[in-house]
Amino acid sequence: MKYFTRKPLLFLLSTFFLINSYPSIASQEQEDNPKVSSIVYSSWKGKQKILNEGGEAGAAPSRVCASSLIGPSLQKKSKKKTNLQKAKVDKRENKQSQQSTSSPHSILKVKTQKTNTPKTLKKIRAQVEIFEESGNFLAASQEMDRFLKMTSAPTLEDLCYALDLNRRAPLIKQRQNRPQHLATLIANHLKIDSQATDIYFQKYSWQQFWPYLDFLIAETAEDPTYEIRHFKYKLDGQDIYDHLQWILAHMRSYKYPIGISEDRYGTEGNKSAEGVWDIYHEGLTINNYTQKENQARNSFAYHFYGGAVDTTRLDQGTFYNLMVRAGFKEEDFEKGKHGFQDKILVKPSLLNKDTLEQCYAALKEEVALTLERAKHPYVTFVFELRPDASFSVNELFSYNNGTLFKYFYEELQGPAATIIEDREKRLYFCFHNVKQIILDLHKTSSLEALNKVQEFMVKRYNNFEKECTIITGRGNHVNSNGAIGVLHQAFKQWAKKELKPYIKTYIPFGKDGGYKIILRQPTTLLLTRQPFEVHLEEATSSILKADQTNDKRLIITHQQAQSDIYFYTLASKAFLKLAQQHSFTPTHYLKNAENGIYLTWKDS
Protein backbone atom coordinates (compact mmCIF):
# COMPACT_ATOMS: atom_id res chain seq x y z
CA MET A 1 0.00 0.00 0.00
CA LYS A 2 1.33 3.43 -0.90
CA TYR A 3 0.34 6.67 0.75
CA PHE A 4 0.85 10.22 -0.31
CA THR A 5 -0.38 13.38 1.33
CA ARG A 6 -0.01 17.00 0.34
CA LYS A 7 -1.34 20.06 2.18
CA PRO A 8 -1.79 23.56 0.51
CA LEU A 9 6.02 19.62 -2.36
CA LEU A 10 29.27 19.81 -6.57
CA PHE A 11 29.56 18.32 -3.20
CA LEU A 12 30.61 21.06 -0.78
CA LEU A 13 33.28 20.26 1.78
CA SER A 14 32.50 21.40 5.28
CA THR A 15 35.14 19.60 7.30
CA PHE A 16 35.27 21.37 10.67
CA PHE A 17 32.88 19.09 12.55
CA LEU A 18 34.13 15.96 10.84
CA ILE A 19 37.76 16.70 11.75
CA ASN A 20 36.77 17.22 15.37
CA SER A 21 34.57 14.12 15.50
CA TYR A 22 36.83 11.86 13.39
CA PRO A 23 38.52 10.13 16.37
CA SER A 24 35.10 8.86 17.45
CA ILE A 25 34.91 6.89 14.19
CA ALA A 26 38.04 4.97 15.07
CA SER A 27 37.02 4.34 18.66
CA GLN A 28 33.62 3.15 17.53
CA GLU A 29 35.24 0.84 14.98
CA GLN A 30 37.37 -0.78 17.69
CA GLU A 31 34.31 -1.29 19.84
CA ASP A 32 32.05 -2.60 17.10
CA ASN A 33 34.51 -4.80 15.22
CA PRO A 34 36.63 -7.04 17.52
CA LYS A 35 38.53 -8.44 14.57
CA VAL A 36 39.85 -5.07 13.48
CA SER A 37 40.47 -4.07 17.09
CA SER A 38 42.55 -7.21 17.66
CA ILE A 39 44.71 -6.51 14.62
CA VAL A 40 45.44 -2.98 15.75
CA TYR A 41 46.24 -4.09 19.29
CA SER A 42 48.50 -7.00 18.21
CA SER A 43 50.41 -4.76 15.81
CA TRP A 44 51.15 -2.18 18.46
CA LYS A 45 52.06 -4.95 20.97
CA GLY A 46 54.46 -6.57 18.50
CA LYS A 47 56.01 -3.22 17.70
CA GLN A 48 56.60 -2.49 21.38
CA LYS A 49 58.21 -5.94 21.92
CA ILE A 50 60.68 -5.38 19.06
CA LEU A 51 61.59 -1.95 20.40
CA ASN A 52 62.27 -3.42 23.85
CA GLU A 53 64.46 -6.19 22.45
CA GLY A 54 66.31 -3.66 20.31
CA GLY A 55 67.03 -1.73 23.48
CA GLU A 56 68.62 -4.77 25.16
CA ALA A 57 70.82 -5.43 22.14
CA GLY A 58 71.82 -1.82 22.08
CA ALA A 59 73.12 -2.17 25.66
CA ALA A 60 75.75 -4.79 24.64
CA PRO A 61 78.47 -2.21 23.86
CA SER A 62 78.20 -0.97 27.43
CA ARG A 63 78.82 -4.49 28.70
CA VAL A 64 81.79 -4.84 26.33
CA CYS A 65 83.21 -1.57 27.61
CA ALA A 66 82.79 -2.82 31.13
CA SER A 67 84.90 -5.90 30.32
CA SER A 68 88.00 -3.73 30.03
CA LEU A 69 88.05 -3.53 33.81
CA ILE A 70 88.45 -7.33 34.09
CA GLY A 71 91.89 -8.85 34.39
CA PRO A 72 93.80 -10.07 31.25
CA SER A 73 93.49 -13.71 32.27
CA LEU A 74 89.73 -13.42 32.11
CA GLN A 75 89.45 -11.21 29.05
CA LYS A 76 90.12 -14.07 26.62
CA LYS A 77 87.43 -16.25 28.21
CA SER A 78 85.12 -13.26 28.44
CA LYS A 79 85.81 -12.38 24.80
CA LYS A 80 84.96 -15.94 23.72
CA LYS A 81 81.77 -15.83 25.73
CA THR A 82 80.91 -12.42 24.30
CA ASN A 83 81.41 -13.70 20.76
CA LEU A 84 79.03 -16.59 21.46
CA GLN A 85 76.44 -14.18 22.88
CA LYS A 86 76.89 -11.88 19.91
CA ALA A 87 76.29 -14.77 17.53
CA LYS A 88 73.10 -15.70 19.39
CA VAL A 89 71.92 -12.09 19.29
CA ASP A 90 72.66 -11.82 15.56
CA LYS A 91 70.84 -15.10 14.91
CA ARG A 92 67.87 -13.94 16.94
CA GLU A 93 67.77 -10.55 15.21
CA ASN A 94 67.94 -12.17 11.78
CA LYS A 95 65.03 -14.43 12.73
CA GLN A 96 63.05 -11.47 14.04
CA SER A 97 63.84 -9.52 10.88
CA GLN A 98 62.45 -12.36 8.76
CA GLN A 99 59.35 -12.57 10.97
CA SER A 100 58.81 -8.84 10.82
CA THR A 101 58.83 -9.00 7.02
CA SER A 102 56.25 -11.79 6.81
CA SER A 103 54.19 -11.28 9.96
CA PRO A 104 50.68 -9.81 9.38
CA HIS A 105 51.13 -7.81 12.59
CA SER A 106 54.55 -6.35 11.80
CA ILE A 107 55.66 -2.73 11.74
CA LEU A 108 55.67 -2.86 7.95
CA LYS A 109 52.07 -4.06 7.93
CA VAL A 110 50.99 -1.29 10.28
CA LYS A 111 52.58 1.33 8.05
CA THR A 112 50.83 -0.15 5.00
CA GLN A 113 47.45 0.01 6.77
CA LYS A 114 47.98 3.66 7.55
CA THR A 115 48.78 4.59 3.97
CA ASN A 116 45.81 6.58 2.67
CA THR A 117 46.91 7.53 -0.81
CA PRO A 118 44.20 8.29 -3.38
CA LYS A 119 45.02 5.03 -5.12
CA THR A 120 44.51 3.02 -1.91
CA LEU A 121 41.23 4.81 -1.13
CA LYS A 122 40.03 4.23 -4.68
CA LYS A 123 40.70 0.50 -4.32
CA ILE A 124 38.77 0.35 -1.05
CA ARG A 125 35.84 2.24 -2.55
CA ALA A 126 35.82 -0.13 -5.54
CA GLN A 127 35.79 -3.10 -3.17
CA VAL A 128 32.82 -1.56 -1.33
CA GLU A 129 30.86 -1.36 -4.57
CA ILE A 130 31.72 -4.96 -5.43
CA PHE A 131 30.41 -6.14 -2.07
CA GLU A 132 27.29 -4.00 -2.48
CA GLU A 133 26.52 -5.32 -5.96
CA SER A 134 26.89 -8.88 -4.72
CA GLY A 135 24.44 -8.21 -1.90
CA ASN A 136 27.04 -8.59 0.86
CA PHE A 137 26.04 -5.42 2.71
CA LEU A 138 27.79 -6.38 5.94
CA ALA A 139 31.15 -6.64 4.20
CA ALA A 140 30.39 -3.50 2.19
CA SER A 141 29.57 -1.52 5.34
CA GLN A 142 32.70 -2.77 7.13
CA GLU A 143 34.88 -1.86 4.16
CA MET A 144 33.20 1.55 3.90
CA ASP A 145 33.89 2.17 7.58
CA ARG A 146 37.55 1.36 6.93
CA PHE A 147 37.45 3.91 4.10
CA LEU A 148 36.10 6.56 6.50
CA LYS A 149 38.85 5.83 9.04
CA MET A 150 41.52 6.38 6.40
CA THR A 151 39.97 9.62 5.12
CA SER A 152 40.91 12.75 7.01
CA ALA A 153 37.76 14.66 5.98
CA PRO A 154 34.89 12.43 4.72
CA THR A 155 32.40 14.17 2.43
CA LEU A 156 28.66 14.21 2.98
CA GLU A 157 28.37 11.65 0.18
CA ASP A 158 30.81 9.32 1.97
CA LEU A 159 28.92 9.52 5.25
CA CYS A 160 25.49 9.05 3.65
CA TYR A 161 26.75 6.12 1.58
CA ALA A 162 28.11 4.49 4.73
CA LEU A 163 24.80 5.11 6.53
CA ASP A 164 22.83 3.53 3.70
CA LEU A 165 25.06 0.44 3.67
CA ASN A 166 24.95 0.03 7.44
CA ARG A 167 21.14 0.28 7.49
CA ARG A 168 20.90 -2.42 4.82
CA ALA A 169 23.48 -4.70 6.46
CA PRO A 170 22.33 -7.61 8.68
CA LEU A 171 21.88 -6.46 12.26
CA ILE A 172 24.63 -7.80 14.50
CA LYS A 173 25.23 -6.80 18.10
CA GLN A 174 28.65 -5.28 17.51
CA ARG A 175 27.29 -2.89 14.86
CA GLN A 176 23.79 -2.09 16.10
CA ASN A 177 24.74 1.49 17.04
CA ARG A 178 26.62 2.21 13.83
CA PRO A 179 23.69 3.88 11.90
CA GLN A 180 22.97 6.22 14.79
CA HIS A 181 26.66 7.05 15.09
CA LEU A 182 26.91 7.89 11.38
CA ALA A 183 23.68 9.90 11.54
CA THR A 184 25.21 12.01 14.31
CA LEU A 185 28.28 12.69 12.16
CA ILE A 186 26.03 13.70 9.25
CA ALA A 187 24.06 16.07 11.50
CA ASN A 188 27.36 17.65 12.59
CA HIS A 189 28.44 17.97 8.97
CA LEU A 190 25.14 19.64 8.04
CA LYS A 191 25.21 21.79 11.21
CA ILE A 192 21.63 20.93 12.18
CA ASP A 193 19.77 19.80 15.28
CA SER A 194 18.85 16.25 14.36
CA GLN A 195 16.13 16.11 17.04
CA ALA A 196 14.31 19.23 15.84
CA THR A 197 10.74 19.12 14.55
CA ASP A 198 11.57 21.45 11.65
CA ILE A 199 14.82 20.92 9.74
CA TYR A 200 15.93 23.00 6.75
CA PHE A 201 18.79 21.62 4.64
CA GLN A 202 20.07 24.85 3.12
CA LYS A 203 23.26 24.01 1.22
CA TYR A 204 22.72 20.52 -0.11
CA SER A 205 20.31 18.93 -2.58
CA TRP A 206 18.19 15.85 -2.02
CA GLN A 207 20.45 13.63 -4.15
CA GLN A 208 23.34 14.24 -1.76
CA PHE A 209 21.71 13.23 1.52
CA TRP A 210 18.58 11.15 0.84
CA PRO A 211 19.89 8.19 2.96
CA TYR A 212 19.88 10.55 5.93
CA LEU A 213 16.27 11.52 5.16
CA ASP A 214 15.48 7.79 5.09
CA PHE A 215 16.96 7.55 8.57
CA LEU A 216 14.94 10.53 9.86
CA ILE A 217 11.70 9.18 8.37
CA ALA A 218 12.26 5.81 10.05
CA GLU A 219 13.14 7.53 13.32
CA THR A 220 9.90 9.54 13.21
CA ALA A 221 7.81 6.47 12.39
CA GLU A 222 9.29 4.47 15.27
CA ASP A 223 8.93 7.19 17.89
CA PRO A 224 5.27 8.14 18.63
CA THR A 225 6.41 11.23 20.56
CA TYR A 226 7.06 12.75 17.12
CA GLU A 227 3.53 13.65 16.04
CA ILE A 228 4.82 15.69 13.11
CA ARG A 229 8.17 16.65 11.54
CA HIS A 230 8.93 18.97 8.63
CA PHE A 231 11.96 18.77 6.32
CA LYS A 232 12.77 21.35 3.64
CA TYR A 233 15.42 20.89 0.95
CA LYS A 234 16.37 21.62 -2.65
CA LEU A 235 15.82 19.20 -5.52
CA ASP A 236 17.73 19.34 -8.81
CA GLY A 237 15.36 19.21 -11.74
CA GLN A 238 17.31 16.33 -13.30
CA ASP A 239 16.48 14.23 -10.21
CA ILE A 240 12.76 14.94 -10.13
CA TYR A 241 11.70 11.53 -11.46
CA ASP A 242 14.04 9.68 -9.07
CA HIS A 243 12.63 11.80 -6.25
CA LEU A 244 9.09 10.80 -7.20
CA GLN A 245 10.02 7.11 -7.21
CA TRP A 246 11.73 7.58 -3.83
CA ILE A 247 8.58 9.12 -2.34
CA LEU A 248 6.39 6.37 -3.81
CA ALA A 249 8.69 3.75 -2.29
CA HIS A 250 8.10 5.29 1.13
CA MET A 251 4.36 5.34 0.47
CA ARG A 252 4.59 1.60 -0.17
CA SER A 253 6.61 1.01 2.99
CA TYR A 254 4.72 3.11 5.54
CA LYS A 255 1.08 2.57 6.31
CA TYR A 256 -1.37 4.27 8.61
CA PRO A 257 -0.84 5.64 11.28
CA ILE A 258 2.26 7.05 9.51
CA GLY A 259 1.57 9.77 6.95
CA ILE A 260 3.98 11.11 4.34
CA SER A 261 3.29 14.67 3.19
CA GLU A 262 4.92 16.65 0.37
CA ASP A 263 4.76 20.27 -0.67
CA ARG A 264 6.53 22.45 -3.20
CA TYR A 265 7.46 25.96 -2.12
CA GLY A 266 8.94 27.34 -5.31
CA THR A 267 11.40 26.94 -8.15
CA GLU A 268 14.67 28.42 -9.37
CA GLY A 269 16.39 28.82 -12.72
CA ASN A 270 14.90 28.00 -16.09
CA LYS A 271 12.09 25.73 -17.22
CA SER A 272 12.83 23.22 -19.97
CA ALA A 273 10.61 22.36 -22.91
CA GLU A 274 9.47 19.32 -20.92
CA GLY A 275 8.28 21.60 -18.13
CA VAL A 276 11.08 20.80 -15.66
CA TRP A 277 12.73 23.58 -13.65
CA ASP A 278 16.43 23.69 -12.77
CA ILE A 279 15.79 23.58 -9.01
CA TYR A 280 12.70 22.84 -6.91
CA HIS A 281 12.17 23.84 -3.28
CA GLU A 282 10.60 20.76 -1.71
CA GLY A 283 9.02 20.11 1.66
CA LEU A 284 8.47 16.75 3.31
CA THR A 285 6.21 16.24 6.33
CA ILE A 286 5.99 13.06 8.40
CA ASN A 287 2.84 12.62 10.50
CA ASN A 288 2.68 9.97 13.19
CA TYR A 289 -0.98 9.54 14.13
CA THR A 290 -0.32 6.89 16.81
CA GLN A 291 -1.08 9.13 19.78
CA LYS A 292 -4.13 10.73 18.14
CA GLU A 293 -5.49 7.32 17.24
CA ASN A 294 -5.00 6.05 20.80
CA GLN A 295 -6.72 9.12 22.22
CA ALA A 296 -9.68 8.72 19.87
CA ARG A 297 -10.00 4.92 20.04
CA ASN A 298 -12.44 4.92 22.96
CA SER A 299 -14.20 8.19 22.16
CA PHE A 300 -15.37 7.74 18.58
CA ALA A 301 -15.36 5.41 15.63
CA TYR A 302 -15.32 6.16 11.93
CA HIS A 303 -18.52 5.03 10.31
CA PHE A 304 -20.67 5.79 7.29
CA TYR A 305 -23.94 7.66 7.76
CA GLY A 306 -27.04 6.11 6.27
CA GLY A 307 -25.03 3.66 4.16
CA ALA A 308 -24.67 6.33 1.44
CA VAL A 309 -21.18 5.20 0.45
CA ASP A 310 -20.90 2.21 -1.85
CA THR A 311 -18.66 -0.10 0.19
CA THR A 312 -18.53 -2.65 -2.63
CA ARG A 313 -16.19 -0.25 -4.44
CA LEU A 314 -13.97 0.75 -1.52
CA ASP A 315 -12.49 -0.58 1.68
CA GLN A 316 -13.71 1.21 4.81
CA GLY A 317 -10.34 1.06 6.56
CA THR A 318 -8.49 2.44 3.55
CA PHE A 319 -11.14 5.11 3.00
CA TYR A 320 -10.92 6.48 6.53
CA ASN A 321 -7.14 6.33 6.45
CA LEU A 322 -7.43 8.61 3.42
CA MET A 323 -9.73 10.98 5.31
CA VAL A 324 -7.36 11.31 8.25
CA ARG A 325 -4.47 11.94 5.89
CA ALA A 326 -6.49 14.65 4.12
CA GLY A 327 -6.77 16.47 7.45
CA PHE A 328 -10.26 15.57 8.70
CA LYS A 329 -10.66 15.37 12.47
CA GLU A 330 -12.90 13.60 14.93
CA GLU A 331 -15.61 16.26 14.87
CA ASP A 332 -15.82 16.10 11.07
CA PHE A 333 -17.00 12.50 11.26
CA GLU A 334 -19.48 13.13 14.08
CA LYS A 335 -21.67 15.73 12.38
CA GLY A 336 -23.74 13.20 10.49
CA LYS A 337 -25.81 13.97 7.43
CA HIS A 338 -25.17 17.71 7.30
CA GLY A 339 -21.56 17.53 8.41
CA PHE A 340 -19.17 14.99 7.00
CA GLN A 341 -21.20 13.95 3.96
CA ASP A 342 -22.06 17.52 3.05
CA LYS A 343 -18.35 18.27 2.98
CA ILE A 344 -17.26 15.26 0.95
CA LEU A 345 -18.63 13.73 -2.20
CA VAL A 346 -17.45 10.10 -2.42
CA LYS A 347 -17.41 8.69 -5.93
CA PRO A 348 -16.24 5.08 -6.50
CA SER A 349 -15.78 4.09 -10.15
CA LEU A 350 -14.77 0.99 -12.11
CA LEU A 351 -12.27 1.63 -14.92
CA ASN A 352 -13.52 -0.88 -17.46
CA LYS A 353 -11.45 0.22 -20.45
CA ASP A 354 -9.16 -2.29 -22.15
CA THR A 355 -5.82 -0.49 -22.31
CA LEU A 356 -3.67 1.45 -19.88
CA GLU A 357 -3.87 4.56 -22.07
CA GLN A 358 -7.68 4.41 -22.21
CA CYS A 359 -8.03 4.02 -18.44
CA TYR A 360 -5.62 6.90 -17.90
CA ALA A 361 -7.69 9.19 -20.16
CA ALA A 362 -10.96 8.09 -18.52
CA LEU A 363 -9.58 8.78 -15.03
CA LYS A 364 -8.44 12.31 -15.94
CA GLU A 365 -11.74 13.13 -17.62
CA GLU A 366 -13.84 11.93 -14.70
CA VAL A 367 -11.79 13.89 -12.17
CA ALA A 368 -12.06 17.13 -14.18
CA LEU A 369 -15.80 16.88 -14.91
CA THR A 370 -16.77 15.79 -11.38
CA LEU A 371 -14.86 18.61 -9.70
CA GLU A 372 -16.51 21.21 -11.94
CA ARG A 373 -20.03 19.91 -11.22
CA ALA A 374 -19.72 19.00 -7.54
CA LYS A 375 -21.29 21.19 -4.84
CA HIS A 376 -18.97 19.73 -2.22
CA PRO A 377 -15.73 21.41 -1.08
CA TYR A 378 -14.03 17.97 -1.05
CA VAL A 379 -14.36 15.10 -3.50
CA THR A 380 -13.00 11.60 -2.96
CA PHE A 381 -12.43 9.35 -5.99
CA VAL A 382 -11.92 5.60 -5.77
CA PHE A 383 -10.84 4.14 -9.12
CA GLU A 384 -10.83 0.35 -9.34
CA LEU A 385 -9.31 -1.75 -12.11
CA ARG A 386 -11.04 -4.73 -13.64
CA PRO A 387 -10.01 -8.10 -12.17
CA ASP A 388 -8.54 -9.10 -15.54
CA ALA A 389 -6.58 -5.84 -16.07
CA SER A 390 -3.16 -6.47 -17.58
CA PHE A 391 -1.56 -3.59 -15.65
CA SER A 392 -1.37 -2.49 -12.02
CA VAL A 393 -2.66 0.62 -10.28
CA ASN A 394 0.96 1.66 -9.77
CA GLU A 395 1.55 1.53 -13.54
CA LEU A 396 -1.62 3.55 -14.05
CA PHE A 397 -0.56 6.22 -11.56
CA SER A 398 2.98 6.40 -13.01
CA TYR A 399 1.88 6.22 -16.65
CA ASN A 400 3.71 8.49 -19.09
CA ASN A 401 6.45 9.44 -16.61
CA GLY A 402 4.04 10.58 -13.91
CA THR A 403 2.14 13.16 -15.96
CA LEU A 404 -1.02 12.37 -13.96
CA PHE A 405 0.77 13.51 -10.83
CA LYS A 406 1.92 16.67 -12.65
CA TYR A 407 -1.61 17.38 -13.94
CA PHE A 408 -3.10 17.06 -10.46
CA TYR A 409 -0.71 19.60 -9.00
CA GLU A 410 -0.53 22.11 -11.82
CA GLU A 411 -4.23 22.19 -12.69
CA LEU A 412 -5.99 21.07 -9.49
CA GLN A 413 -3.47 22.14 -6.82
CA GLY A 414 -2.91 18.48 -6.02
CA PRO A 415 -4.97 15.93 -4.07
CA ALA A 416 -5.13 16.48 -0.33
CA ALA A 417 -4.34 12.77 0.04
CA THR A 418 -3.62 9.75 -2.14
CA ILE A 419 -3.48 6.02 -1.49
CA ILE A 420 -2.23 3.61 -4.16
CA GLU A 421 -3.60 0.26 -3.00
CA ASP A 422 -2.04 -2.59 -4.95
CA ARG A 423 -3.83 -5.31 -3.01
CA GLU A 424 -7.28 -3.83 -3.70
CA LYS A 425 -6.30 -2.75 -7.25
CA ARG A 426 -7.64 0.72 -6.40
CA LEU A 427 -6.50 4.34 -6.47
CA TYR A 428 -7.87 6.63 -3.73
CA PHE A 429 -7.76 10.43 -4.20
CA CYS A 430 -9.21 13.12 -1.96
CA PHE A 431 -9.29 16.57 -3.59
CA HIS A 432 -9.98 19.95 -2.10
CA ASN A 433 -12.27 21.09 -4.89
CA VAL A 434 -10.55 24.12 -6.42
CA LYS A 435 -12.89 23.78 -9.42
CA GLN A 436 -15.99 24.08 -7.24
CA ILE A 437 -18.34 26.71 -8.68
CA ILE A 438 -21.40 25.86 -6.53
CA LEU A 439 -21.67 26.53 -2.79
CA ASP A 440 -24.69 25.13 -0.89
CA LEU A 441 -25.51 26.97 2.36
CA HIS A 442 -28.37 24.75 3.53
CA LYS A 443 -28.43 24.20 7.33
CA THR A 444 -25.79 26.91 7.85
CA SER A 445 -26.00 29.75 10.38
CA SER A 446 -25.64 33.36 9.19
CA LEU A 447 -22.17 33.85 10.64
CA GLU A 448 -20.90 30.50 9.33
CA ALA A 449 -22.51 31.20 5.95
CA LEU A 450 -20.74 34.57 5.56
CA ASN A 451 -17.36 33.00 6.34
CA LYS A 452 -17.99 30.20 3.84
CA VAL A 453 -19.16 32.60 1.13
CA GLN A 454 -16.15 34.89 1.56
CA GLU A 455 -13.67 32.01 1.41
CA PHE A 456 -15.48 30.51 -1.58
CA MET A 457 -15.66 33.81 -3.46
CA VAL A 458 -11.99 34.71 -2.91
CA LYS A 459 -10.88 31.31 -4.21
CA ARG A 460 -13.03 31.59 -7.33
CA TYR A 461 -11.82 35.15 -7.88
CA ASN A 462 -8.13 34.24 -7.51
CA ASN A 463 -8.66 31.22 -9.75
CA PHE A 464 -9.79 33.60 -12.54
CA GLU A 465 -13.27 32.07 -12.74
CA LYS A 466 -15.94 34.00 -14.64
CA GLU A 467 -18.97 32.96 -12.60
CA CYS A 468 -20.16 30.82 -9.70
CA THR A 469 -23.36 29.84 -7.91
CA ILE A 470 -24.45 30.14 -4.27
CA ILE A 471 -27.49 28.18 -3.07
CA THR A 472 -29.17 29.87 -0.10
CA GLY A 473 -32.56 28.14 -0.16
CA ARG A 474 -35.83 29.48 -1.63
CA GLY A 475 -36.59 31.55 1.44
CA ASN A 476 -40.14 30.25 1.93
CA HIS A 477 -39.57 28.38 5.20
CA VAL A 478 -39.28 29.60 8.78
CA ASN A 479 -36.06 28.81 10.64
CA SER A 480 -35.67 28.02 14.37
CA ASN A 481 -35.59 31.75 15.23
CA GLY A 482 -38.86 32.43 13.42
CA ALA A 483 -37.17 34.30 10.56
CA ILE A 484 -37.95 33.65 6.90
CA GLY A 485 -35.27 33.26 4.22
CA VAL A 486 -32.47 34.72 6.35
CA LEU A 487 -29.60 33.69 4.09
CA HIS A 488 -31.45 34.59 0.91
CA GLN A 489 -31.93 38.14 2.21
CA ALA A 490 -28.51 38.36 3.86
CA PHE A 491 -26.68 37.69 0.61
CA LYS A 492 -27.96 40.97 -0.88
CA GLN A 493 -26.33 42.87 1.98
CA TRP A 494 -23.07 40.92 1.67
CA ALA A 495 -22.95 41.70 -2.06
CA LYS A 496 -22.98 45.44 -1.23
CA LYS A 497 -20.28 45.22 1.45
CA GLU A 498 -18.00 42.24 2.09
CA LEU A 499 -18.33 40.73 -1.39
CA LYS A 500 -18.36 43.95 -3.41
CA PRO A 501 -14.68 43.74 -4.57
CA TYR A 502 -15.35 40.41 -6.28
CA ILE A 503 -18.86 40.70 -7.74
CA LYS A 504 -19.77 42.41 -10.99
CA THR A 505 -23.46 41.44 -10.78
CA TYR A 506 -25.69 38.66 -9.45
CA ILE A 507 -28.90 37.08 -10.68
CA PRO A 508 -31.41 35.34 -8.35
CA PHE A 509 -33.02 32.06 -9.40
CA GLY A 510 -35.93 30.20 -7.86
CA LYS A 511 -35.44 26.48 -8.40
CA ASP A 512 -33.24 25.82 -5.38
CA GLY A 513 -33.15 29.36 -4.07
CA GLY A 514 -29.89 31.10 -4.74
CA TYR A 515 -27.86 33.42 -6.94
CA LYS A 516 -25.80 33.12 -10.08
CA ILE A 517 -22.82 35.44 -9.60
CA ILE A 518 -20.83 37.12 -12.38
CA LEU A 519 -17.35 37.82 -11.06
CA ARG A 520 -15.21 40.85 -11.87
CA GLN A 521 -12.80 40.14 -14.71
CA PRO A 522 -9.08 40.89 -14.47
CA THR A 523 -6.96 43.15 -16.67
CA THR A 524 -5.81 41.41 -19.83
CA LEU A 525 -2.76 41.96 -22.03
CA LEU A 526 -2.54 40.48 -25.53
CA LEU A 527 1.00 40.52 -26.88
CA THR A 528 1.58 40.96 -30.62
CA ARG A 529 4.58 40.57 -32.90
CA GLN A 530 6.91 42.94 -31.10
CA PRO A 531 10.41 42.61 -29.60
CA PHE A 532 10.72 41.30 -26.07
CA GLU A 533 11.69 44.78 -24.78
CA VAL A 534 8.35 46.15 -26.00
CA HIS A 535 6.47 43.32 -24.30
CA LEU A 536 8.38 44.04 -21.09
CA GLU A 537 7.25 47.68 -21.14
CA GLU A 538 3.64 46.60 -21.82
CA ALA A 539 3.67 44.05 -18.99
CA THR A 540 5.16 46.55 -16.52
CA SER A 541 2.56 49.18 -17.41
CA SER A 542 -0.32 46.67 -17.19
CA ILE A 543 0.73 45.49 -13.72
CA LEU A 544 0.82 49.06 -12.41
CA LYS A 545 -2.56 49.83 -14.00
CA ALA A 546 -4.20 46.75 -12.48
CA ASP A 547 -2.69 47.45 -9.06
CA GLN A 548 -4.20 50.93 -9.01
CA THR A 549 -7.68 49.46 -9.49
CA ASN A 550 -7.16 47.18 -6.45
CA ASP A 551 -7.70 44.19 -8.74
CA LYS A 552 -4.28 42.57 -8.44
CA ARG A 553 -4.73 40.18 -11.34
CA LEU A 554 -3.45 40.14 -14.92
CA ILE A 555 -3.85 37.68 -17.79
CA ILE A 556 -1.02 37.82 -20.35
CA THR A 557 -1.41 35.97 -23.66
CA HIS A 558 0.31 36.12 -27.06
CA GLN A 559 -1.01 36.01 -30.61
CA GLN A 560 1.63 33.43 -31.48
CA ALA A 561 2.56 30.26 -29.61
CA GLN A 562 5.24 30.86 -26.96
CA SER A 563 6.91 28.61 -24.41
CA ASP A 564 6.14 28.81 -20.69
CA ILE A 565 9.66 30.09 -20.13
CA TYR A 566 8.92 33.14 -22.27
CA PHE A 567 6.00 34.22 -20.08
CA TYR A 568 7.75 33.37 -16.80
CA THR A 569 10.81 35.38 -17.85
CA LEU A 570 8.61 38.29 -18.91
CA ALA A 571 6.77 38.40 -15.58
CA SER A 572 9.94 38.04 -13.50
CA LYS A 573 11.72 40.85 -15.35
CA ALA A 574 8.64 43.06 -15.16
CA PHE A 575 8.50 42.79 -11.35
CA LEU A 576 12.27 43.31 -11.16
CA LYS A 577 11.93 46.48 -13.22
CA LEU A 578 9.06 47.69 -11.01
CA ALA A 579 11.18 47.11 -7.93
CA GLN A 580 14.08 49.10 -9.36
CA GLN A 581 12.05 52.00 -10.74
CA HIS A 582 9.08 52.25 -8.37
CA SER A 583 10.16 50.28 -5.23
CA PHE A 584 7.18 48.04 -6.00
CA THR A 585 7.98 44.64 -4.46
CA PRO A 586 4.82 42.54 -3.98
CA THR A 587 4.71 38.75 -3.65
CA HIS A 588 3.51 37.39 -6.99
CA TYR A 589 2.14 34.07 -8.20
CA LEU A 590 2.08 32.52 -11.66
CA LYS A 591 -0.24 29.96 -13.17
CA ASN A 592 -0.28 28.53 -16.68
CA ALA A 593 -2.95 29.72 -19.09
CA GLU A 594 -3.57 28.69 -22.68
CA ASN A 595 -0.55 30.24 -24.45
CA GLY A 596 -0.06 32.63 -21.56
CA ILE A 597 -0.08 33.05 -17.79
CA TYR A 598 -2.42 34.08 -15.00
CA LEU A 599 -0.61 36.55 -12.76
CA THR A 600 -1.68 37.57 -9.23
CA TRP A 601 0.15 39.49 -6.52
CA LYS A 602 -0.30 40.86 -3.03
CA ASP A 603 1.58 43.35 -0.90
CA SER A 604 4.59 41.82 0.83
- Low-confidence runs of at least 5 consecutive residues: 1-82, 95-114, 296-307, 478-484
> What fraction of the residues are assigned to beta strands by DSSP?
15-25%
Main β-sheet, in a few words? 5 strands, mixed
Tell me the helix content: 40-55%
Please count the helical segments.
22
Mean pLDDT figure:
75
Radius of gyration: 36 Å
Tell me the total number of β-strands. Answer: 17
Q: Indicate the structural class.
A: alpha+beta
* CA distance, first residue to last residue: 42 Å
Largest sheet strand order: 1-8-9-7-6
Sum up the overall morphology in one term: globular
Which short descriptors sum up this protein?
alpha+beta, disordered N terminus, 4-stranded mixed β-sheet, 20% strand, 50% helix, 604 residues, 5-stranded mixed β-sheet
